[in-house]
Specification:
UPRTase/APRTase; 5-stranded parallel beta sheet; binds 1-O-pyrophosphono-5-O-phosphono-alpha-D-ribofuranose; Adenine phosphoribosyltransferase; binds adenine; PRTase_dom; Rossmann fold; two-stranded antiparallel sheet; AMP binding; Ade_phspho_trans; 174 residues
Length: 174
């Protein structure tokens, strides 16, 4: 297994969910046991020595690898959810993404001030979602946050919106 095989396993779906968008479909990668293992192990290698205590995953595709990473790192997992899904007290932020707008929420009691946080999402496009996630994480602590993506769409330059992040890493760039 290698990165080329992983890249080949990601399906391009033109004009989804809107005309002009080429959707990077990771379901075709996730369903392959060897690809899933290679991706999980690669991301773990990147973060194993950073002292991460909480992995924060962005709903919904960020939950898949985020929770695997949390398990492998021996960290806790925190869910950043779309509005109205979390049952207890939350912080909320609105944001735009490549094909629309949305909101994210996090439970107010999910992170402690001394946690070392890794934010994970499957894909960085405009950076709207990740920037919103970083805004929410600032409510807990001003410590820098590590940020991890499986895929980065470099032509959208989303990284420039993530100034508050400590280190930004993506396994695959398109
Ligand atoms: O960098 P951005 O322009 O913000 O785009 C990236 C976001 O868009 C997708 O999520 P989506 O809102 O489609 O939700 P899903 O994971 O539930 O499919 C993707 O999983 C990222 O979270
Ligand atoms: N082109 C794209 N493919 C998959 N997920 C996305 N999220 C934002 N843009 C996307």
């Amino acid at each position: 297994m290698n990165l080329e095989t992983v890249i080949a396993s990601i399906r391009n779906v033109p004009d989804f969910p809107k005309p002009g968008i080429i959707f990077k479909d990771i379901t075709t990668a996730m369903k392959d046991a060897e690809v899933l293992k290679f991706i999980s192990d690669s991301l773990y290698e990147e973060y194993k020595d950073k002292g991460i205590t909480k992995v924060v995953g962005v709903e919904s595709r960020g939950f898949v690898l985020g929770s695997i990473l949390a398990y492998k790192l021996g960290a806790g997992f925190v869910l950043l959810r779309k509005p109205g899904k979390l049952p207890a007290d939350t912080y909320k932020v609105d944001y735009d993404l490549e094909y629309g707008s949305d909101s994210l929420e996090i439970h107010k009691d999910s992170i402690a001030e001394n946690d070392v946080v890794l934010l994970h999402d499957d894909l960085l496009a405009t950076g709207g979602s990740a920037n919103a996630a970083l805004e929410l994480l600032k409510k807990f602590s001003h410590n820098p946050v590590y940020v991890s993506f499986l895929i980065e769409l470099t032509f959208l330059d989303g990284k420039k919106r993530l100034g508050a992040a400590k280190e930004i890493h993506s396994l695959i760039q398109f």
